[in-house]
Amino acid sequence: MLIIRNQIDFYMKKLFFGVALFLGLSSIAAVAQVNNPLVKDPWTKAQLMQPATLVSILKNPKSVKPFIFNIGVVEDIQGAKNLGAASKKENLENFKSALSSLPKNSSVVVYCGCCPFSKCPNIRPAFLAMQEAGFKNGRLLNIPTNIKTDWISKGYPLK
Predict the structure, then answer these.
(1) Mean pLDDT for each consecutive 10-residue tract of the chain (159 residues)?
(2) What is the pTM of this model?
(3) Residues 66, 68: Cα–Cα separation, whole Å
């Protein structure tokens, strides 16, 4: 009986160690993917919208306004709908739901601005969701540093 108990304890410890190792390596891989400069971003240069371009669209009363989604935890720019951090599953699902009610040819702009693009946990899942939903006119607002530097300090409009 003691031998069987020792064997069970041994295998349980191995199992626990294996699970802990797997979870640790998965976390490291997720962080490495966001912070790794060798990982290709899912957007092209053509899919980046410059802040000044969006401001000119917002200020022009004759222009067709895009659907703007704040998928981060930052201040809302003029006309944006705040859905919360897209790194959280429920917020990403809310974003997908919002997209599902729009025509596929709609102009859609997503942004975060919580931190530099290379570290942002929100823009990649949201941008990929927009692509997977079939939006050909989907753009990522080019806020490479953060919203304070790339939008607010330039006097661009907030809500």
Answers:
(1) 57 49 42 50 91 95 95 92 95 96 95 90 94 94 94 94
(2) 0.74
(3) 6
